[in-house]
């Protein structure tokens, strides 16, 4: 008897199992869970994939039982993922166990049908690509993956812009075998640009012999008129498929006339249901309508006759008048040979129905090792649950597999107790387990190619970060590595794979050293087991090079990367995916070694190869493009606008495929913003965008990912350039310890944030701290030192640190030392990069050097140096170009060449104002030079007018005490004195003196204010002392860079001064109590600041007559004095006991003694 297939819709609920119900064939037909599914998949050789769908790309479609999602994999390969709704509780009115069991049943049915040779070999069937996994926080479910096609309706709509489809093309679309409805037909691109139709969705299809009975779902609008809802013989079901095939042929042929105006599939279904209603009173109505549409088309007689016969053979009301199979229908369209035994009188092959109790961990351990660790956990837990099955065969097998998992730490920790329990459940002995474990040692032989689908690797790091599972992944993989090592020794291939996975996770988590150790062991294992030239061995060496580069070991990374590429070439493996990845890693190492041209040249080759092999929008291609754009920005002749356009394209592609919160999308956005800042300078708009990236990364990735901290340093750098020094310093102080924690002190990222923070400290006047940090960086590099005069080159990190040290000396007016370092830096730049102007930091240093030339009277030397800078900056599209031009004009002005300066300064001021705003240091510099030039030519009115406008703006935007505000105040006062506006000038100069005394970013200003307040207090000028001290406390509260201790101490002194003003007595008491509370909680009860505050509060309470409160404070001071070990302990004890005696005298009412003690104390 022949075997036939019926492909029926899958959106109806309540369908019985569609596989034969004989236990002899099944083994365990009623056992429907993930372990049974895996057994069926193993039997038919279905791949277990690690790739997942990409939510950002949206759903392809939705049916009654499933949602179809999608993922871009590689060039010209998209996958569609069918996710069953029942796994997520979306099917109402049924128990969870029932719906889940039926879901697994339909999935096993589909695998079995699609794996039959006649189906698998058909060109018109959408075959299964593999089983993927949908992993959520608390659930794991299997997902079917298929090669994505275009739905039939979408294909027809997409051709609507063309002239009406030819009849020949429309008839070509009907080459199907067992259709359902248009929504279940997808179009796949074929040779010569033709589209091949393929049937999809076999989850509720049936398979069996012609005489067997099956209950079939109803397809509203697309089913045959004889459908009655009961069981059908397979042979009769086939005739209903033929009828549905005729309906779809009618749908395609009449698309332009009857269906193209309908906007949704729901409207199409309603139209077909209306036709079905007409068929109840007139069974021939569908056939008559199809022939009616046919007669409206201009066709030749032969073609018309052929199509009419097709409709009469498919849409006949009587099933016996229809063609007996799809092949007979297709024969009407021309010669066809589909190899269907049913039409050749041949006997079909027996139905291949697997035993569901035969899942073996070892057969899939390699593929499952590449999957999410939660998948392995899920499988282990399912094995434990299903080991309690009623059928002894399933119980014994699954208990054995659970024991294997507990032995090798597959999806669980290694546990001898769990092994024993599983063996007891399965009534197995340890010999059986030992035999299974022995077989696992040969699971992966050196002479066999890897069975992993490398083009379908999942981005597991992103998945772990998305779920907040990084720590759990580390723990789980550590456990698996330990278990595999204990069971199989140090050189098992699966152990090597898991170690490589763990190394990648650890590297992402910032544990670089441990990651390198693991990856080194992976390389050694592969070299021993597979040979030095094996692709896996070379790939593991290339990965080691990448980890070395991540850890800042650039030189070693370059040598290791070169070694990997040499092995690829010797093994004739060049230009495959792994060798290209090794080239990309080497290019990045070149970049980190400041070999920008080598990096860009190699990266361009990598991008071309990736675009050819993987496609232009593959994640690996996009990441390489991102690197190429970065390299372009650092070349001597930067290609800034080209790089920006590349960055925009990368971001758009990542947002399309991955969504706004994917790690790669955030990195692409950060790279784009960084390029914009580097090319055009920072702005509040780019800073807001950088803050947005940082906030998204913090919410999505969390504190244990390095990315948010890198984004924090990027935002802080922009803040520095925009003059937001305090905000920048706060971010740097937050990022530095976290980057150090994650990557270690010697990593490139740690040294980079240290450099940035040193720059922030220098801007705040913390020069000693800035230099200390820079010396740490130089010491870590172990290449140069501040005093080394025999440089042979240095790393960029050390170079930048030396620049900060030099500028710090300049800020402190140690000009001889600064000048010596400046000149040394220009030599280092020429030595390292071929020109003293090649590095942006060097050009910045030279702008200061020209200022020193002018101070030394070498005005012409300053002009010449600025000319060279302007020429270089004009060639190099660096944002400092405008600053160099302003400096050149300023050099002319300082040299007395005012007219030459004014040839460019007005335009430069307008450009600076438009690009950077009125408060930016470049704009302020242009104003300074412009007003000086006007004043030099006695053009006082425009100089004063501009000075007043700019001063008012700066006071409002950056504040009256900002150094730029003070600079403009000084210039304006000078101009006012020239025109004898003495009153206004005196007011400005007086304000300057006061601000310089009080300004917290002025050298020693805080100490000066403190000492001045103390002096006024000593002189009895209490109000002046209180005013200055109050201002100082306010500045401490507003400045995040001031230490907490200093702030608390200054509040104590303010409370002490307030005590001397009767009008401020209560304020003094409250402030002393607040200070005591803060000091006590922060430093302890016996800290001297805590004791001072408590003593002051006690004395004030005693003077107010609050004796109980005073007693409490003095008791606390006495307890602290008895505990301290400092030299002033005796004095503390003496003073406190005297206060207590005075307090007791007050309690006794001894006014005379009270007065005497008080006078003595005062």
Automatic annotation (TrEMBL):
One of its GO terms (molecular function) is ATP binding. SMART domains: S_TKc, TPR. Pfam families: Pkinase (PF00069), TPR_10 (PF13374), TPR_12 (PF13424), TPR_8 (PF13181). SUPFAM superfamilies: HCP-like, Protein kinase-like (PK-like), TPR-like. Gene3D superfamilies: Tetratricopeptide repeat domain, Transferase(Phosphotransferase) domain 1. InterPro entries: Kinase-like_dom_sf, NLR-like, Prot_kinase_dom, Ser/Thr_kinase_AS, TPR-like_helical_dom_sf, TPR_rpt. Residues 54-333 form the Protein kinase domain. It comes from the Eukaryota. PANTHER family: AAA+ ATPASE DOMAIN-CONTAINING PROTEIN-RELATED (PTHR46082:SF11), ATP/GTP-BINDING PROTEIN-RELATED (PTHR46082). This is Uu.00g099000.m01.CDS01.
């Amino acid at each position: 008897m022949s075997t036939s297939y019926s492909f029926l819709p899958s959106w109806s609920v309540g369908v019985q199992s569609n596989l034969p119900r004989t236990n002899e064939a099944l083994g365990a037909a009623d056992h429907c869970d993930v372990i049974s599914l895996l057994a069926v998949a193993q039997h038919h050789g279905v791949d277990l994939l690690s790739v997942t769908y990409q939510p950002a790309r949206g759903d392809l479609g939705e049916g009654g039982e499933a949602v179809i999602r999608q993922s871009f994999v590689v060039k010209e390969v998209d996958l569609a993922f069918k996710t069953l709704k029942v796994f997520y509780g979306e099917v109402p009115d049924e128990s969870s166990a029932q719906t889940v069991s039926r879901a697994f049943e339909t999935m096993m049915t589909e695998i079995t049908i699609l794996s039959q040779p006649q189906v698998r070999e058909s060109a018109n069937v959408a075959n299964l690509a593999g089983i993927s996994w949908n992993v959520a926080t608390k659930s794991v479910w299997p997902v079917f993956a298929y090669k994505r096609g275009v739905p039939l309706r979408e294909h027809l709509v997409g051709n609507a812009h063309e002239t009406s489809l030819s009849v020949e093309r429309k008839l070509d679309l009907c080459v199907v075998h067992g259709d359902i409805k248009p929504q279940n037909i997808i179009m796949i691109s074929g040779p010569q640009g033709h589209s091949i139709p393929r049937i999809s969705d076999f989850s509720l299809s049936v398979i069996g012999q012609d005489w067997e009975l099956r209950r079939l779902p109803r397809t509203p609008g697309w089913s045959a008129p004889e459908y009655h809802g009961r069981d059908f013989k397979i042979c009769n079901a086939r005739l209903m498929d033929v009828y549905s095939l005729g309906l779809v042929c009618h749908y395609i042929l009449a698309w332009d006339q009857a269906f193209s105006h309908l906007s949704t599939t729901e409207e199409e279904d309603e139209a077909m249901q209306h036709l079905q209603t007409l068929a109840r009173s007139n069974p021939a109505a569908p056939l008559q309508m199809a022939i009616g549409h046919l007669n409206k088309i201009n066709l030749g007689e032969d073609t018309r006759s052929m199509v009419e016969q097709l409709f009469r053979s498919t849409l006949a009301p009587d099933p016996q008048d229809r063609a007996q199979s799809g092949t007979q229908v297709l024969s009407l369209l021309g010669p066809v040979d589909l190899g269907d035994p049913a039409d050749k009188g041949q006997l079909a092959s027996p139905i291949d129905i697997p035993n569901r109790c035969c899942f073996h961990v070892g057969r899939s351990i390699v593929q499952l090792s590449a999957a999410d660790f939660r998948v392995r956990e899920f499988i282990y837990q399912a094995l434990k649950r299903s080991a309690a099955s009623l059928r002894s065969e399933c119980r014994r097998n699954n208990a054995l597999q659970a024991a294997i998992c507990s032995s090798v730490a597959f999806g669980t920790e290694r546990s001898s107790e769990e092994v024993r329990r599983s063996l007891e459940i399965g009534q197995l002995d340890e010999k059986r387990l030992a035999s299974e474990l022995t077989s696992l040692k040969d699971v992966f032989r050196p002479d066999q190619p890897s069975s992993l689908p490398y083009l379908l690797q999942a981005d597991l790091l992103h998945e772990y970060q998305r779920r907040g599972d990084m720590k759990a992944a580390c723990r789980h993989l550590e456990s698996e590595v330990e278990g595999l090592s204990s069971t199989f020794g140090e050189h098992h291939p699966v152990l090597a794979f898991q170690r490589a996975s763990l190394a990648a996770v650890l590297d992402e988590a910032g544990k670089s050293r441990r990651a390198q150790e693991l990856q080194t062991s992976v390389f050694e294992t592969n070299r021993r087991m597979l040979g030095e030239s094996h692709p896996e061995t070379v790939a593991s060496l290339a990965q080691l090079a990448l980890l070395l580069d991540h850890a800042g070991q650039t030189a070693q990374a370059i040598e290791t990367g070169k070694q990997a590429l040499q092995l690829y070439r010797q093994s004739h493996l060049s230009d495959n995916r792994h060798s290209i990845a090794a080239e990309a890693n080497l290019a990045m190492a070149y970049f980190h070694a400041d070999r920008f041209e080598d990096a860009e040249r190699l990266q361009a080759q990598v991008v071309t190869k990736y675009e050819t092999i993987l496609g232009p929008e593959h994640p690996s291609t996009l990441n390489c493009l991102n690197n190429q754009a970065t390299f372009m920005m650092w070349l001597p002749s930067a290609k800034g606008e080209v790089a920006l356009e590349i960055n925009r394209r990368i971001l758009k592609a990542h947002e399309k495929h991955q969504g706004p919160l994917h790690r790669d999308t955030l990195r692409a956005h950060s790279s784009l913003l960084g390029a914009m800042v580097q090319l055009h300078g920072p702005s509040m708009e780019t800073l807001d965008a950088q803050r947005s990236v940082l906030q998204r990364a913090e919410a999505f990735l969390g504190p244990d990912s390095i990315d948010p901290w890198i984004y924090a340093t990027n935002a802080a750098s922009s803040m520095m350039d925009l003059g937001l020094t305090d905000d920048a310093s706060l971010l740097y102080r937050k990022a530095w310890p976290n980057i150090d924690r994650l990557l270690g002190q010697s990593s490139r990222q740690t040294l980079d944030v240290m450099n940035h923070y040193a720059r922030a400290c220098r801007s705040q006047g913390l020069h000693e701290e800035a230099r200390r940090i820079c010396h740490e960086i130089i010491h870590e590099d172990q290449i140069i030192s501040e005093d080394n005069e025999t440089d042979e080159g240095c790393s960029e990190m050390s170079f930048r640190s030396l620049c900060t040290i030099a500028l710090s000396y300049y800020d402190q007016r140690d000009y001889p030392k600064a000048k010596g370092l400046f000149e040394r830096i220009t030599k280092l730049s020429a030595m390292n990069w071929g020109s003293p102007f090649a590095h942006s930091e060097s050009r910045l240093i030279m702008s200061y050097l020209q200022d020193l030339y002018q101070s030394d009277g070498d005005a012409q030397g300053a002009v010449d140096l600025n000319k060279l800078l302007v020429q270089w900056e004009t060639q190099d599209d660096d944002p400092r170009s405008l600053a160099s031009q302003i400096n050149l004009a300023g050099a002319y002005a300082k040299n007395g060449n005012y007219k030459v300066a004014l040839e460019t300064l007005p335009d430069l001021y307008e450009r600076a104002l438009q690009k950077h705003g009125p408060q930016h240091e470049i704009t302020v510099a242009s104003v300074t030079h412009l007003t000086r030039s006007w004043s030099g030519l006695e053009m006082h009115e425009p100089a004063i007018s501009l000075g007043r406008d700019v001063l008012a703006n700066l006071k409002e935007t950056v504040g009256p005490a900002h150094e730029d505000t003070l600079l403009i105040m000084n210039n304006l006062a000078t101009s006012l004195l020239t025109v004898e506006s003495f009153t206004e000038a005196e007011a400005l100069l007086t304000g300057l003196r006061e601000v310089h005394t009080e300004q917290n970013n002025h050298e020693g200003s805080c100490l000066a204010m403190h000492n001045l307040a103390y002096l006024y207090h000593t002189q009895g000028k209490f109000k002046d002392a209180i005013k200055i001290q109050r201002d100082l406390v306010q500045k401490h509260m507003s400045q995040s860079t001031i230490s907490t201790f200093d702030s608390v101490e200054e509040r104590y002194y303010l409370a002490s001064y307030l005590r001397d003003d009767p009008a401020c007595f209560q304020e003094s008491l409250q402030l002393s109590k607040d200070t005591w509370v803060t000091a006590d909680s922060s430093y302890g009860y016996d800290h001297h600041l805590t004791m001072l505050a408590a003593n002051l509060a006690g004395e004030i309470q005693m003077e107010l007559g609050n004796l109980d409160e005073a007693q409490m404070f003095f008791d606390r001071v006495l307890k602290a004095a008895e505990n301290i070990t400092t030299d002033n302990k005796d004095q503390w004890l003496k003073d406190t006991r005297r206060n207590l005696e005075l307090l007791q005298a007050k309690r006794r009412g001894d006014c005379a003694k009270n007065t005497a003690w008080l006078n003595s104390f005062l």
